[in-house]
Design a protein that fits this description.
Rossmann fold, 45% helix
Length: 263
């Protein structure tokens, strides 16, 4: 198949949080586009199970990793290079989404969100960016932010919103730093996406099933395209940003929200 500028054949890619939801959608599209993917996830057993399901011209290997570990970035980069010969693409997708009002939030819970969503992302980016610069062939770093980096969706996400706002500014700052090395750094801001991860905080919020349904219906009513997004809606944009089609784009945030922020 001729994929034109969207061909990722032979590229070594790392996708964190790759075993579920948006991350899994990205892994599947990358393999389909020919990339060789290191599927990294805190759940190593699930990661290995998911790799076994993949079919496509690209290869994939699984790795268990917690992005908050101090050496996570170096471990990911070393494994990607050992498996595929280079690291050309990084997708920072790993993230957590607890729904706790700020007046009830502990310092420990706040710090965990920042550690996973922002600090982990930043230092994995540092490790990958350093290797890309050393390789001398450029690269693509894609950060999964959120529309909450631009506007809060609801009460209970102060820590999450703060972390994603940080992701947006980190993306811009790191893009400026990495541009001389030919490394593009961009971010995607998903809106409401139906995944296992987005269901989890609602399940632990104390809401009844009817209340959860009503909340979802209110959210969908604010989306001009009239539906929640699917992981593949984000994955296809990630393929674009990872490909040569996006060679002249850096430091940008692409909003993929069905028009939710238009209101």
């Amino acid at each position: 198949m001729d994929r034109g500028p969207f061909d990722l054949a032979g590229k070594g890619a790392i996708v964190t949080g790759g075993a579920m939801g948006i991350g899994w959608g990205i892994v599947k599209r990358f393999v389909e586009a020919g990339a060789n993917v290191l599927l990294a996830d805190v759940d190593d057993e699930l990661a290995a199970h998911k790799v076994a399901e993949l079919e496509g011209p690209g290869k994939a290997v699984a790795m268990g990793v917690d992005v908050t570990d101090e050496m996570a970035g170096e471990r990911l980069v070393d494994e990607c290079v050992a498996s595929f010969g280079s690291v050309d693409i990084l997708v920072n997708n790993a993230g957590i989404y607890p729904m706790i009002p700020m007046l009830e939030l502990t310092r420990e819970a706040w710090q965990r969100v920042i550690d996973v969503n922002l600090t982990g992302l930043s230092f994995v980016s540092k490790a990958a960016g350093a290797r890309m610069a050393e390789q001398g062939a450029g690269g693509k770093i894609i950060n999964v932010a959120s529309i909450d980096a631009l506007h809060p969706s609801m009460v209970g996400l102060a820590a999450y919103d703060s972390s994603k706002g940080g992701v947006l500014m980190f993306t811009k700052a790191f893009a400026l730093e990495m541009a001389p090395h030919g490394v593009n750094v961009n971010a995607i801001a998903p809106g409401g996406i139906s995944t296992e991860g987005t269901a989890a905080p609602l399940a632990g919020s104390g809401l009844t099933a009817d209340e959860m349904t009503a909340m979802t219906e209110r959210f969908i009513a604010q989306i001009p395209l009239g539906r929640m997004g699917e992981p593949d809606d984000i994955a296809k944009v990630a393929v674009f940003l990872a490909s040569s089609a996006a060679d002249y784009i850096t430091g940008e945030l692409i909003v993929v929200d069905g028009g939710r922020l238009l209101g």
